[in-house]
Design goal:
Helix content is 12%, strand content 40%. With 81 residues, it is mainly beta. The radius of gyration is 18 Å and the shape is elongated.
Length: 81
């Protein structure tokens, strides 16, 4: 891999002078049930998911840690799964 290529699952971009590196660390399927959202019923949640072409029974919770680089320092935000 050359120095300009980024491996699959890693996305790098700039926000001002900060280099942001997002690393996809997988997902965990979460079964939906009443009480998942405090102010919505399970059917309301399922209808909203369906309107966005998402599954009605589970929600995939993704893990994407971020590393910020600026001024020669690196800060890791959330270490992922």
């Amino acid at each position: 891999m050359s120095t300009t290529e980024t491996p699959s699952g890693i996305y790098r971009y700039k926000a001002g002078d900060v280099v942001v590196t997002a690393v996809w660390d997988g997902f965990n399927p979460l079964a939906l049930k009443d009480g998942f959202v405090r102010n919505a019923t399970l059917p309301e949640i399922q209808d909203t998911l369906a309107s966005q072409f998402l599954p009605r029974e589970t929600l995939n919770i993704t893990f994407t840690p971020l590393a910020l680089q600026h001024g020669g320092k690196t800060v890791l935000i959330d270490t992922g799964f």
